Amino acid sequence: MKRIIAIYFSIAWYIIVGQSPPESPTLYATVNHERVQLSWNNAAELSIDSLTGYADFEGYKIYRSTDGGETWGGAHDRLFDHNGQFIGWKPFAQFDLSQDEDEEFCIYGDDCDESGAPTRSIGISGPDPLNTRQHLGYNTGLVHSFIDSSVLDGMEYTYVLTAYDMGLRSYEIEYTDDNNDGIFTADTIWSLSNPDHILVNGSGLASLESDYGLSLDQNYVSVTPGYYASNVWFPDPDNIDTLFVRQPGTIGTGNKSYSVVERYELTDEVLKFEIQASIATDAVENMASENALIYVYEVDNAESQIPVTIASTFDTINFSESGKDSLRDLPGASENGGSIFIPEYKMITGVDVISNKVSGIQFEFENMPRVAPDRVPIENYEWSGDTITYLNILKGSKLINLNFQYSSQNTYNRRLNFDYLIEFFDTPRGDTVQNSFCNTFPTVLPLQIKNLTTGKKVALNHKDNGVPGTLNPPNYDLGALDCMWTRNEEIKFWGDTLETTDGLEAIYTFSLKLNFPIFEAIGDSLTWSETGTYEKDEIVYYKAMMWIAQEDINAKEPTAEFYDDDSDGMNDNPWKPYYPWDDGDSLIIRTEKFFVDGDSWLVDMSMLGSQQDVSVESLNEISVVPNPYFSRSHFQEEEERRLRFTRLPSECRITVYTITGELVTVINHSDPYDSNEWWNLQSGESHTGKTITPGLYIFVVEAEGKDHIGKFAVVR
Questions:
Q1: How far apart are CA 396 and CA 401, in angstroms?
Q2: Average pLDDT, the chain
């Protein structure tokens, strides 16, 4: 069979009435020493094209200007069409959906995992087929922040952030010669990203980009990098719990992040962030985790947490009981004297969404993913006092590896926000459980498991398939079908008794595998033999496990069975499995959890940019830039000569003298965050006198009873 494929794209590109670019993102910028951090929300990613009805977002482009937006790059950054006409600029930075993110992107903007709606199913990158002068990205993966470290303190930089779409892909024509007779038949192969088979002028559409905007637009910022005031403190953003303080009873463990996006809007408020969520019909333990939203409101302090401002008051006599319950369930709601009071919410936003600005910050709460991961995400382990490593519990020289999995996607969807306690024994005398393949005998485990959230023990099932985890073929020498638990054999949480809408129900929730390597050398002298003799406390290897002799033994096969040869109720088995734990050891598995209705965190906003005492050490860091000052400088404006005092505290007094001690000027610096103070090199109190002459000058900075003396030079 011979095939010829003709790509059906128009050479020209169009601006079609009705086609719309993605919404312009809201851009924020914060500065520090030789650093500009840009951050933005993800509103553009939710845009629906008004012509096609598709969610066609593809990526972001950042443009940078050093002349206030007159140009957005150098000569090599200009873009021209095929006729040599200037059409725009290459972006300073660009981020787009990765291959996987492209393929999984929901075409109609739905939650594809929930609704089964179609996904894009193709990757988008490279030059735009309908406008090859524009590039659709390099599959970088989406980000919502960018740090520009190629900046100089004291220079103004202007940034624009745009969002662009993938355009509209139509179809290819595939010509097939099925009979190899030279006669080709045509077949239309539509792009999977265009399930409605939309055509415009017989073709697809080129990518559209949102506008650059102007200085007052939401995607346009101008900033000047420089140090924060030397006596201002910000908590470490990587240690989020310092600022977002988890309140008692909070269950959800999702990651939280924030960034300061407008430092002059920071407040001294105490803000409460509270989850409002509904309960699913199949929820367990009455946990409401569906459609989670974050409500932000101000409270009086961390102790009483009384809302500062009441937005609405409702007389309960006018509401049914269900209506009153709905009002009472709102975050921060209170009831008194027949009235229900609802606080003023500074913001209501979803989880997994980068928020808009509130009190000078932007934040995001990341919930558990919609699709069950391969392994249960673990918040932390607590192993009876020994060292913990990632997904492994290190106990002395013995390493225990855990594989903890959800039983199914459906189980995951029921929001199993549980922690478990595993109690270990040095012999198989824990729970007696059903064995999936050994119908003659149940399995006696060297452990028992308790659901710490419900307080109930978990009924277990043992899958007796040996260390490799499969019975195809049966691995008899590796512990399969021996009616005892061998390392790495699956233990199913077959009877996790949970409260449901129908009462108590024993649910299959998780499966657990505990594996540990045999650290002792295994050779002929340590491998059990049916003709061997073994002394008490000697350790041997047999069927993928280690065994320790309880007495002198002659030729008896190691097994975990219970022998009572003298009918005294005591186990007379001379062999005991040798485990990498001690009798009475325990392990708590704390899982990561979905946000639940009522989860809350307090944020003391006064911590952001809090004023600290001025230190002599910080004053000694003060400098003048540039020093020496030349008539031509990176830091001067075309129409004004000026230099900059930097690394100042937020409040200080700067006095400038000639080298002979003559007063030149006094500058009062007052800015809660900025460490920079500009001076136009003119004398007098109002800096309107004569421009200073070349020479050496002395400056004194005074703050909180401390001072710093420095020098700078002015050169022709």
A1: 14
A2: 88
